[in-house]
Amino acid sequence: MRSRQLLQAITMLCLTLFCPKVKSQAAFNKELPKEFTDQFNQEINDSIPSLGSFIVSQNDKLIYEHYSHGASKETIFSIKSVTKSIVSVLAGIAQDKNILPNLNTPVLKILPEYNVSRSSFKKISNIEGKVAHDSIRNTLTLRNLLTMQGGFDWIENSKISTAMSFSGDPVKFVLDLPFEEYPGTVFNYNSGETHLFGAALAKIVKTNLKQFAAENLFKPLKINVPRWDTDSMNRNIAGSEMFMKPEDMLKFGLMILNNGKLGGRQIVSSKWIQESTAEHVKLDSWDVMPGANGYGYYWWRRKTNGHQAFVATGYGGQLICIIPDLKMVIVTTCFLNDKNRGRSEIKRLHYFIDKMTKEDIYKH
């Protein structure tokens, strides 16, 4: 008996000294104090009048669930650019099926119908510049698009992004844009690049993205996606315009937390989860992402109270924040109404996420 007690004591000492993640996770195993939640509810409602939901799961258990301003469990939200992170997982599923080409493959190898050189048109204006553009365009790879390093001259949420959405063929619109940088050299957030990647991915999987997602992601996770808008060419918009309930966003987040697995089923390989959330672009600061530390394959990275987090981020405050060493997933949604302050809602929500990941609130 003594030897067993001694062994247990030594084991606990080793865990304390050498496994800080175990220690930090244990600190979060208690329920949230009522005093904290009451104050938190009041502060977040006052601070974010467009807030719809704020949900926290830890160790696969809901520890906080808050709906406000008329929202409920049944409310369906536009998740905006959270869609991009879902498309990243679809790419991983395609890779698991051995149908996704090497990520260094030029996108025009997959979409050759858009590879029309202008070198034969001798009388068009600025022929030299356009031929040079075509040459650069041929080097644009799937990896460049996945990491927002396409190099196009683009400003997000501007007249140019509106023009793309109104164009007869948004994929052609993006490919015809001038280059500001060489592909693969500079990060510039660009929803047009995601739409281009989505068009290539749909061509690879030989069906539209919604159908591929329904069969390989949504159905296995029991996720309901009532709407995913399309462009003028009837392609699903890969960078935005997907709609779902907060609880379904949580299921997706839990699958990422569990390295691609949920309910005993491997939805996407753990290898892809690790690769897609790794730092592929150095990003030490972003105006609405405090503690930013890189960008993956359509995944933002940041630190919250010292803990690494991976964040699917959508305009106006749609977030899925995964914090692996705390076994925690936080989901937020906001109404896109006249009270919504746009991108700045994201920064406000990270302030409240940081409140949730402070260990001292669980020690009362």
* Number of H/I helices: 14
Tell me the span between the first and last alpha carbons: 34 Å
Shape estimate:
globular
- Summarize the amount of helix as a percent range: 40-55%
Could you tell me the strand content as a percent range?
A: 15-25%
Give the strand line-up of the largest sheet: 2-1-12-11-10-9-8
Q: Which spans of ≥5 residues are poorly predicted at pLDDT below 50?
A: 10-29
Q: Mind describing the biggest β-sheet?
A: 7 strands, antiparallel
Rg (CA only): 22 Å
Strands, total number: 12
Mean pLDDT: 91
Question: What does this entry look like structurally?
Answer:
By secondary structure, the protein is of the alpha+beta class. The chain has helices spanning 2-18, 20-26, 34-47, 82-96, 107-110, 127-137, 142-146, 159-166, 170-175, 191-205, 209-221, 246-257, 270-277, 344-356, and strands spanning 51-58, 61-67, 77-78, 227-228, 242-244, 261-262, 265-266, 292-295, 300-304, 307-314, 318-323, 328-334. The strands form three sheets. Strands 2-1-12-11-10-9-8 form a seven-stranded antiparallel beta sheet, sandwiched between helices. A three-stranded antiparallel beta sheet has the order 3-5-4. It has a two-stranded antiparallel ribbon with strand order 6-7. Strand 6 and strand 7 (265-266) form a beta hairpin. Helix 4 packs parallel to helix 10. The two termini are 34 Å apart.
